[in-house]
Amino acid sequence: MKRYYVLIALMIVLPQLLLAQNFADAFRMSYNEIQGTARAAGMGNAFGALGGDFTSLSINPAGSAVYQTGEFVITPSYYINKSDMTVGGGTFSDNEQSFALNNVGAVGTFRTNRSEAGIVSVNYGIGYNRLANYNSNSFGNFDQSSVSWLDDITAYANNEALANAYLEQDIGAIQYRDWTTKLAWDTYLIDPIYDENGNAIDGQYQSILYQDEKVDQLKTYSQDGRLDEYLFNVSLNFNHKFYLGTTLAFHDIRYDSHARYEELLEDNNSYLYDNDYYMSGSGFNFKIGAIYKPVQTVRLGLAFHSPTFYQISEKSVLSMESYLAQNYSNYGVNTYDYDFNSPWKVVLSGAAVFAKRGLISVDAEYQDYASMRYRRGGYGSDNFNDLNSEMGNVFNSVINLRVGAEYKLTNQFAVRAGYQMYGNPYENTLAQQATLTDNVNVLSAGFGYTINAFSINVAYTNSMSKISEGAEQPNYYQVPRENNNHNILMSFGFRF
C-alpha cells in the first residue's frame, strides 16, 4: 500500500508550476542594490544630493552637473557570497566568489560662457553601473524523511485523474504544470494501479515506495547573473546653485538558476530532478532630477525614476533521472517571452558639507512594488490578469535609506563610511518561491587618495539578507537562508 498526501500535493498547483513567471521573478527584476564606484559604495551610495560621482547619474541625473571638470572612472571588484541554509535542524554553509567590472564611465563638461550667472555649463555622461549581482550557492540535506516527493507527485496525479494515455504523450504535448508527473511516469517512479483482473485503472497511480519507507533528501541551489545599467546623461548647471539633469538608461539583465534535488531510496534506488531556469532581457527607463544649494554648505536633491520597461526571454529545462534496476531519464524544455514593467521610484536627498573637510549625506527612496506588472506574454495574447491582480496582496511599498559620511584627513586622503537599508516589500512568505523575510542591510567603509588629476578609491561592502528559499519538495517548502555578500571595489579615476 502506498502513501498519499493530498493536501501537500495540491500545493504543487501554485504559480511556480502553473506559470514560469512568478512573484519572485518580479521582485528580482525590480530590486536594485547599486554597485557603482568605490567612493560612492564606501559612503553607502548616498549621492542623490551630492553629485560629482559617476554613480550619482543612476540615482539623481543632476549629479553630473556638479562636475566642474571631466572625469573617466573604472571600477573592478571582487565579490564573495556566503550562504547559510537551515534544513531539518541543521545548518549548511556554502559560498561563491567572482570578479566583476562594476562601473565604467566618463563625464564631460562644456562651459557655456565665462560668467557665473545663468547656465554656467552643460555636462554629459556615458557609461554603466552595476545594479545587482545574483551570484550565490547554497545547499541543504534532510536525512530519513518519512515523506517523499514521490508521495506528492502521486497524490497530484490521482487528484487530477491524469489519464494514462495523456502521460504517454510527448512531453511537449503535456501542460507545463504536469511535467513533473510526466517525468516521474517516464522514469518509472510512479506506476498505474491495477484492478483484480490485472487491468490498469486509468487515472490512478502509486509510487514505487514501500510502506513507511524513509528517504534521504539532498538539494543544491546555484544562481548567477547580473543587472547592468547603461546610461546617457545630460545636465545643466545654473549659477552653481541649481542643477538639473536627465538620464536615459538601458538595462541588461541575465539570471540563471540551477536547482538539483536527489532522493536516496531503499534497495540502492535513487532519482535526480534538475530544474534549470535561464532568463535574459533588456529594458529602458528615464530619470529626471534636480539638486539645489540654498547655502554653500547644504544640498537638497529630488529625482524621479520611471518604471523600467523590459522585454524578457526565459527558458526552463526540467529533467529527471532514476537509478533503479535499470536507469531511465527524460527532460522537457519550455520557452516563453513577455514584457515586464518594474515599479517607479522617487528619491529625496539631503547633504551637509562642513568646512570643506567633511560631509554627511542621506537618500530616502520610495518604491511601490505593488505597481509591478507583467505584460504581453507569449505572442501578446497573455495579459497575466491572474498574476497582476495579486501583486497588491503579495507586495507593498517601501522606503529605502542610504546614509554616508566622508572626512578628509588631508587634502589628498579621505576616509568614508556608509549604511544602506532596503525595505522588505513582501506581505507574506511564499511557500514555493524565494521570499525576502527581512530588510536588507548593507554596511560599508572605504578610503580614497587623490594626487593632481588621478584618484584611487577603495571600498568594502557587506550586504546581509534573510530569505525563505521555497521549493515544491517536502521539507523544502520554506527553508530559511541567510546571505552575507562581501564586495571589495577599487576605482581608478582621471580628471581632465
Kindly describe this structure.
This protein has 496 residues and is mainly β. The protein contains nine helices and 21 strands. The strands form two sheets. The chain has a 14-stranded antiparallel beta barrel with strand order 1-2-3-7-8-9-10-13-14-16-17-19-20-21. A two-stranded antiparallel sheet has the order 5-6. Strand 2 and strand 3 (119-133) form a beta hairpin. It is elongated and about 100 Å long. Mean pLDDT is 93; it is low at 1-19.
Topology:
Layout: H1 6-10, H2 15-18, H3 23-30, H4 38-42, E1 71-87, E2 90-111, E3 119-133, E4 136-145, H5 149-160, H6 164-168, H7 179-186, E5 190-194, E6 200-207, E7 215-238, E8 242-264, E9 270-295, E10 298-305, E11 309-323, E12 327-341, E13 345-354, E14 358-368, E15 373-375, H8 385-388, H9 391-394, E16 397-408, E17 413-422, E18 435-436, E19 440-451, E20 454-469, E21 479-495
